[in-house]
Amino acid sequence: MTVTHLTPAADSGRAVPRTPRVAVVGAGFMGRVHAEAARRAGASVVAAVASTPDGSDHAARTTGAERGYPDLDALLAEAGADVVHVCTPNARHAEAVEAALAAGAHVICEKPLATGVADATALADAAVAAGRVATVPFVYRFHPMVRELRARLATGQAGVVSTVSGGYLQDWLSRPGDDDWRVDPAVGGPSRAFADIGSHWCDLVEFVTGDRIHRLSAQTATVQPRPRPSATPTEDAAVVQFTTASGVLGTVVVSQVAAGRKNRLHLEVSGTESSFAFDQEDPERLWVGGRDANQVLLRDPSTLSPSAARYARLPAGHAQGYQDCFDAFVADTYRAVLGEDRPDGLPTFADGLRAVRITEAVLLSAASAGAWIEVDR
User: Fold this and answer.
1) CA-to-CA distance for 301 and 81, rounded, in angstroms?
2) Which residues pair with 373 in a beta bridge?
3) Torsion sign over Cα 145, 149, 151, 152
4) Which of 232, 278, 317, 346 is most buried (most C-beta within 10 Å)?
5) From CA 52, how far away is CA 35, in angstroms rounded?
6) 117 to each of 114, 254, 371, how far by Cα in Å?
7) CA distance 372 to 209
8) Do 330 and 34 contact (CB within 8 A), yes or no?
9) What does the alpha-carbon distance between residue 23 and residue 92 come to, in Å, rounded to a whole number?
């Protein structure tokens, strides 16, 4: 998809195309994912920056940017970026986002939006005050079968929803020697597993059901010693039970030490007429359960609801996956940036703030022996 912005030409009144100029802040895996999605959406990746000048040169090479800059100030002053993608470690999000907004750029910031509610609130408020498009990549919203699930729930096909359940399981930190900057709370923040992946699950539940987590009780566990011990180690796993604003009961299990599970986000919504289950490691299918019969729906653009078919980029039988979701998220963000429309379901800084509020409630509950905590709205 090529995104264009139609700007009247001063001399002729003709509309001429304009391609977004994009900067990537951060040199890791997510920076590369963002840059690839930007190019597929028709943008030009003009700049990259990392924490050191040498790192910035590396960031430019790995993201395919035209130039690496010695620091963020130089990038914002010289690159002329329309959109800044913030893909730094979590503790640096707030500073980078504030600078980008102050420079007049639109922003895509990796989650968590910030490592605490106060900073996340300030960023959401700053984006509104600046009048900039500001989004957070809760990209699992962009699976076509997630959109199909959302559409079917919105039309009441589940009947009365009684429970939601599922989890997000990974194994990349399951051994004592496994290390990453996310392990250090000074860099990754006070929550690791839940802020990193539990936030995705909670966002998806609220997105598909249109119902919000109201109260929760949580337990967390740190299972493995880490190469960089800390006085306040972050959690490897969390179990959360909750109730929603409408009274639905829910449970979620989050773990980054579940051997054999690479990236299993799974969700089941149980209703009196139909139940639905989605597993992002098998994203081409949506399970539909009924009293008399069960069925499995396949991602087929010809049979999906319009809101889901919009994200079915390939014919049935040609698998779509994570990068396709990321591409769709970035393309929708650019559509908003360029004033083409405000795509339905675009996750904004308000959604990023919401995730930080839920994470804070989880940590507070776990520190209080599982006490029930109300999530601030």
Assistant:
1) 35
2) 216
3) positive
4) 278
5) 19
6) 7, 21, 20
7) 22
8) yes
9) 16
CA neighbor of 295 nearest in space, from 277, 280, 320: 277
Q: How far apart are CA 172 and CA 68, in angstroms?
A: 30
Instruction: HSE, CB side, 13 Å, CA atoms: give it for residue 219.
Output: 6
pLDDT tens-digit readout, 154-199: 999 999 999 999 999 999 999 999 999 999 999 999 999 999 999 9
What tokens does 116 get?
């605490």
pLDDT tens readout for residues 10-41: 232 322 137 999 999 997 899 999 999 999 99
Average pLDDT over residues 318-340: 95
What b/e readout covers 123-140, taking b as 16+ CB neighbours within 10 angstroms?
bbebbeebebbbbbbbbb
Q: What is the pLDDT, as a whole number, of residue 18?
A: 73
251's tokens: 């449970």
Q: Strand, helix or coil at 340?
A: coil
Tell me which of 5-19, 240-254, 285-299 is least confident: 5-19
Question: From CA 98, how far away is CA 116, in angstroms rounded?
Answer: 15
Cα–Cα dist 109/4, whole Å: 22
Secondary structure (3-state) at 94: helix
CA 117/CA 124 separation, integer angstroms: 10
Both tokens of 220, joined, read 């967390």
